[in-house]
Amino acid sequence: MRFFLTEAERKRTHSTCYHEFARGNWDEAAAVHWREDSLDLHDDLMASLGLDELIAGAVPGYDPFGPTEVSAEQWKQICANAETIGGELWQAVGELIPWAAENFARYPAFTILGV
Q1: Which residue positions in the chain have pLDDT lower than 70?
Q2: Cα–Cα distance measured from residue 20 to residue 72, given in angstroms and rounded to the nearest whole number
Q3: How far is 19 from 45, CA to CA, in rounded Å?
Q4: Is residue 20 a contact partner of residue 112, using CB atoms and an 8 Å limit?
Q5: pTM here?
Q6: Residue 10 CB: number of other CB atoms within 10 A?
């Protein structure tokens, strides 16, 4: 992948300056971070791509510093808006499409854990 890292790849960077895209709804009691089936996006890329703004436009209450759940309907809106904008933003969102499809086959949402 060009934009996102697997959790194993993120561990090799020894950095936590990443936004974690985690499967399923956020469980505050468990509060598990850096799951093996998560995908991670560096904070610099999140901002330079404008993905944070794209998400905020489709997900009310998006918190870039905490957990935010993204529903299937919100994800469809994110994808549609990214496709309209195009460029690297659309390419980055495109990397998430297969992962998100697998997620929504099992869960009603995925969670973005901010830096």
Answers
A1: 28-32
A2: 17
A3: 10
A4: yes
A5: 0.92
A6: 21
Q: Which two tokens stand for residue 110?
A: 């995925």
Residues in CB range of 101: below 8 A, 6 or more apart:
none
Structure tokens at 54: 């794209």
Q: Which two tokens stand for residue 72?
A: 């299937």
Q: How far apart are the first and last CA of the chain?
A: 21
Residue 83: partners with Cβ closer than 8 Å, 6 or more residues away: 90, 93
What domains can you pick out in the chain, each with its CATH number?
A: 5-113 (3.40.1760)
Closest of 53, 34, 54, 35 to residue 115, by C-alpha = 34
DSSP the chain: --S-EEHHHHHHHT---EEEEEES---TTT---S-TT-EEEEHHHHHHHTHHHHHHHHSTT--TTSEEEEEHHHHHHHHHHHHHH-HHHHHHHHHHHHHHHHHHHH-SEEEEE--
| pLDDT at res. 28 | 67
